Amino acid sequence: xxxxxxxxxxxxxxxxxxxxxxxxxxxxxxxxxxxxxxxxxxxxxxxxxxxxxxxxxxxxxxxxxxxxxxxxxxxxxxxxxxxxxxxxxxxxxxxxxxxxxxxxxxxxxxxxxxxxxxxxxxxxxxxxxxxxxxxxxxxxxxxxxxxxxxxxxxxxxxxxxxxxxxxxxxxxxxxxxxxxxxxxxxxxxxxxxxxxxxxxxxxxxxxxxxxxxxxxxxxxxxxxxxxxxxxxxxxxxxxxxxxxxxxxxxxxxxxxxxxxxxxxxxxxxxxxxxxxxxxxxxxxxxxxxxxxxxxxxxxxxxxxxxxxxxxxxxxxxxxxxxxxxxxxxxxxxxxxxxxxxxxxxxxxxxxxxxxxxxxxxxxxxxxxxxxxxxxxxxx
Length: 379
Hints:
The chain is an alpha+beta fold. The protein is built from ten helices and twelve strands.
């Protein structure tokens, strides 16, 4: 009986041990499920972060890339590939010198500095050509930054933005301020000269004021047209129509010629000359009577720098050589505008049926000045 009892007690103990083991196993399995869920969530979160990083790389409006210690591309986004003019997959494993040889020295020095110091390089601006595919020099704003792993610099990232247009706009704005200052001084000088001449006129006060008002109005009009066009250029056709537009009738006025761009200074001078011609024609010339006629024809002969613009102002009827008035300030203003401001030649003839005036203007003096793209940038 004792043996049976002992065996029963042992069996009960074994059964309890099994029960305890099963419970412990259940606890372990539950813990493993919790840890598994946590790991799955961590992996999902990591995947989301990786997708976010990939999206930033893919969609960033500026160039992004990652270099290893040997200066080889490890990662690059589409914008950087577009800047370099080389497909994305052709970058990986290759160096900056292989992809953008003309900028390689700058890149190599910057990458080495960031690896050595562990500090970023901020607001680095460079100008130049990237590689043989580059057609124009470009300006880039670049930032280099370290990428750490286990406390040490494991790579160098770069952010690169094409700032060429921003620099051009900035240079243009500065140029415009300087030009505006210069032109305001010139315009004030012109106004003072017109006022001074008016004060010496022997005409009636009312007539002097009317002539002065018209001249200043013509100046104001051309200033307005230049402002609309950022003070770059105004076409000769517009200059002509500005002065004879109110009198224009095809049966009486004939205008013909290619549109020629006049720069800011030359357009002011030409506008004043055309204004005086038109004003004289209205008061004393071909537009002062019903039978008069006016033709304004121009053409270009040759190309810059040796080409010229030829313009003929031809009046018929109303006034002849025998009845014309003596030259006044308006005639002197025309001559000064053509010969001095436009560096041209002026020939005036009074024929039997009216005035024939010819201008010969160098294209270099007529056209807008070339805009140079220069800046204090390192290359």
